[in-house]
Amino acid sequence: MAWIQINTTVSEALAEPLSDAFMEVNAASVTFADAKDQPIFEPEIGTTPIWSQTKVIGLFDAEADIPATIEQLNTLIPQVPSSAYTIEPLEDKDWVRAWMDQFQPMQFGSRLWIVPSWCDIPEPNAVNLMLDPGMAFGTGTHPTTSLCLTWLDQNPPKNLNVIDYGCGSGVLALAAEKLGANDVKGTDIDPQAIIASQQNAERNNATIAFQLVKNFQSEPVDLLIANILAGPLKELAPEFIRLMKPHATLVLSGLLSNQAADLITFYQQQGFKFVAQNDLDEWSQLSFIKQTPSD
Predict the structure, then answer these.
(1) SS3 state of residue 286
(2) Element (H, E) at 80
(3) pTM of the model
(4) Mean pLDDT lowest for which of 9-18, 104-113, 137-146, 280-289?
(5) Phi, psi at 80, each rounded to 5°
(6) What is the three-class DSSP state of 48?
(7) What residues contact residue 188 under an 8 Å CB cut-off, 6+ apart?
(8) What is the pLDDT of residues 183-233, one digit of tens each?
(9) Phi and psi, residue 11, nearest 5°
(10) What is d(CA 5, CA 23) in angstroms, rounded to the nearest whole number?
């Protein structure tokens, strides 16, 4: 089926109204994009990130009356003149296949692989996680997830009890389990994350308990991994301390490299010994050891 995109760039205040207008004139979908290279690293939980200059893109059936559609849009949002809209025909092709072709098996460290379900396993004797990319949660493509997976490959948690705090897709919990952890638990504030994690665990024949944060309970563990954001990583420090055994390892990621020094100082003040920092692109992963008063 052939499609046509209608798009324009508007201010933050007009992005949502224009999105509503696109849907009112029968757009098949509406998406937002950054029009001015303005990254948003820490949007508020439960919000849709909107940039000060936002590109709003409506997708329409190629048979749609595009001039009439733009006229309707101009009536609904008169602040945007008809001349501001750009019309782009899209190639008629198998979009599902094109999307799938973007994702190939990825290796982390020496023996850990993430393999989409439609791909052949490159190394049958390696540690292979069968995980498909989804709309909301990580599968290793983001630098922070990659950093954590590489750390796990280099520091296999054999016979350790592990918590994946902020589990998302459950990928770090799955990697820990496959790399020999004794017991693995995962938690997140988002119900969809719990559902996604449970489904991924079933796909990989893994026994991992995933629970919402509000219901989460655990005895202190040997290793806690949290790939979240710098702000929550500070706020959650008391909870991490409660969930960790003496001399347990803490692995933190989800922070920008320019936030690392501040977070290192903060956790040292909480009684942790800083071990190492690993960087990828503009992101960092930190590791610590929980110290005791006698250390």
Answers:
(1) strand
(2) none
(3) 0.70
(4) 137-146
(5) -105, 110
(6) coil
(7) 166, 167, 168, 194, 197, 210, 212, 213
(8) 999 999 989 889 989 999 999 999 999 999 999 999 999 999 999 989 999
(9) -70, 165
(10) 13
